[in-house]
Amino acid sequence: MFAELVINIEAPLENAFHYYVPFDLKGTLALGHLVEVEFGRRLAQGIVIGFAEEAPVEDTKPVISLIDDRPVVTPTQIALARWLADSYLTPLNACLRLMLP
After folding, report:
1. What is the pTM of this model?
2. Which of 77, 92, 97, 99 is most buried (CB neighbours < 10 A)?
3. How far is 23 from 27, CA to CA, in rounded Å?
């Protein structure tokens, strides 16, 4: 299983990224969870916005850890962030970052 993540960094990122969900996090990870991942050569936070059985690329990195046991955004907030990104031609990560506590 793969998690579709929006990476929480200052740089404008248009797309979500797919990360492999390790066995110990399967069944635990849900929409809106904040996780730690390796992005490039550094650690970054990612917000789970979806799941997939297959990734669009062959090599994927694993989700390293769950940062918070509770989701930090709701599915409604994720949908709103997608709408904002589409309507105002703004990177999805910038829109979702506005909704973080």
Report:
1. 0.93
2. 92
3. 9
